[in-house]
Amino acid sequence: MAIHVRHSLAASLLLCLMLCACSSSRGPKAGAASVKPDKDRNEAPDFALKDADGRTVRLSDYRNKVVLLNFWATWCGPCKIEIPWFKELEQDYKDRGFAVLGVSMDEDGWDAVKPFVKDLGVNYRILLGTDIVAQMYGGVNALPTSFLIDQQGRIASVHLGLVSKSDYENDIQALLASP
User: Fold this and answer.
1) Are 47 and 131 in contact (CB under 8 A)?
2) CA spacing 20 to 30 A to 158: which of 35, 118, 139, 170?
């Protein structure tokens, strides 16, 4: 019995560490936007990745939109927490010039990704990532890693690890409100 208690405590601690450890960067206080000033934004690297239907998607296809570019994987616990938020954000802001692009970094490719996306009812475009694209975005060493890209194709905000839905929403609203 004592062994089971220790195993349960160890498992709980490990789960807590997994959920919190990815968050190596915390945004500003809740309610405050964390977008960079215009002068501090760098061009987001363009890429060409395939979607689930085999179509090539380029980031430049989304110019004039605010884009949430999310690097994730099916095995990533914090990623699973964010996906319902991203579905809501896509639904709430798509008519205002916003889009979510999910870039799966799963090594098993579409065999793992397609059923996962279908089961969760993901309503935004999913692309299969590559190590080259991850390197273009600074290495993407932690999942999830998300980039908010402004209408001019510049990186306005970066979120490493799990951050709150309100952090994303505040950043999106600030970018959609800017000219």
Assistant:
1) no
2) 118
The pTM (predicted TM-score) of the whole model is: 0.82
Question: Which residues neighbour 151 within 8 Å (Cβ) at sequence distance 6 or greater?
Answer: 63, 64, 65, 66, 97, 175
d(CA 124, CA 88): 10
Angle between the N-to-C axes of helices 77-93 and 110-120, in degrees from 0 to 180, rounded to the nearest 10: 60
Helix axis angle, 2-21 to 77-93, nearest 10°: 40
Distance, in Å, from the CA atom of 167 to the CA atom of 164, rounded to the nearest integer, reads 5
Closest CA to 106 of 98, 114, 118, 97: 114
Sign of the torsion formed by the C-alpha atoms of 12, 13, 19 and 20: positive
Residues of the chain with pLDDT under 70: 1-33
Distance CA 121, CA 4 (A): 36
Q: Return the number of other C-beta atoms located less than 10 Å from residue 63's C-beta.
A: 13
Taking phi over 0 as left and psi of -120 to 50 as alpha, with beta for the rest, 64 belongs to left
Phi first, then psi, for residue 37 (nearest 5°) are -60, 155
Superfamily the domain 2-177 falls into: Glutaredoxin (3.40.30.10)
Supply the pLDDT for residue 178.
Answer: 83
Q: N- to C-terminal Cα distance for the chain? A: 63
